Amino acid sequence: MRQASGPPATSGGGGFRSGFVALAGRPNVGKSTLLNRLIGSKVSIVSPVSQTTRTVIRAVDRSADAEVVYLDTPGVHRPRFQMNREMVRAAREALREVDLVLLLIEGPEGLGPGDAYMIRLLEEIKPPAYLVVNKIDAMPRERLLPLLDGASRRHGWEEIFPCSALTGEGCEALSAAIRKRLPAGEALFPDEFLSDLPARLALAERIREQVLLRTREEIPHSTAVLVEEVHRNEKGEYRVGATLLVDRDSQKGILIGRGGEMLKSIGQAARREMASYLECPVHLSLWVKVKKNWRDDPGMLRLLGIATHD
Ligand code: GDP
Ligand code: MG
């Protein structure tokens, strides 16, 4: 990732733009739904279970005029007392490196105490930031203006966008503003990477979700899913090879389980989910590898948006 690069050229020049946009906001404010709306294809899982989506690169939106790389903001949706030092550091760094931050809040709830920590971080680091007031379909219209007015006084937002990720209202305006706000620059990823990325991320999410359903606390936070192989044979069947990366041997043991039961159960359920997502048979090979400190390996993290951090 590169450093945030000053104010953007606002001169409407027709050049290509590219950059990194961090999505932040409490669980359930609608980050995943909004992302799906913004990029128009289902890359991340919209799940009633909060914090299932923890990839670093969430999506890349390449259009005729811009490439927007959407990132998760690690940890910022957690109350401070639950955050370890590593998470705080990761959050700060993420905010420093991106070109734009989108802080999502829920219109019906308004700006609440749960958003305070994020706003403090924004005030400290001062990245360019848009406030996105989501779920306006679920609130009376007459409450909207006072809400926007109050929110505008809470932080120096560059802009505030009311929208509904569910109905799509306001999302096009937001998307256009995001693309225009990025610095002039070339596309950041090669085309082959982009064509594979949605599938890889989506498949990795299916595996990660099964890990989350079956393990607790430290395991989900220490596990990255790396989808290394996606191959379609002449019969139209997919062969997917993926590795669960963990920090320690003990975690590897838990993921494999007694007699391999845990890994088997993760693999079977993930395979079913993948088959229904891809609408064709899937052969899934799953491995577990210990890679100490994989979270501190930037190459690893960038490779395919496989990192967790939370
Ligand atoms: P995340 O945890 O921030 O990623 O939130 P999700 O995208 O998973 O959304 C959480 C819940 O809010 C889901 O049940 C969504 O259907 C719902 N939701 C998201 N956006 C909207 C919206 O604009 N309006 C309404 N009414 N519900 C929404
Ligand atoms: Mg989500």
Describe the structure.
The two termini are 18 Å apart. With 310 residues, this protein is of the alpha/beta class. It is 37% helix and 21% strand. A 6-stranded mixed beta sheet has the order 2-3-1-4-5-6, with helices on both faces. The chain folds into 2 domains: 17-181, P-loop containing nucleotide triphosphate hydrolases (Rossmann fold, 3-Layer(aba) Sandwich); 199-303, K homology (KH) domain (GMP Synthetase, Chain A, domain 3), CATH 3.30.300. The structure holds guanosine-5'-diphosphate and magnesium ion. Residues 25, 27-33, 46-48, 50, 53, 134-135, 137-138, 164-166 line the site of guanosine-5'-diphosphate. Magnesium ion (MG) binds at residues 31-32, 53.
Please tell me the total number of domains.
Answer: 2
SSE pattern? EHEEHEHEHEHHHEEHHEH
- The coarse silhouette is globular
Helix content: 25-40%
Q: In whole angstroms, how far apart are the ends?
A: 18 Å
Overall pLDDT confidence: 80
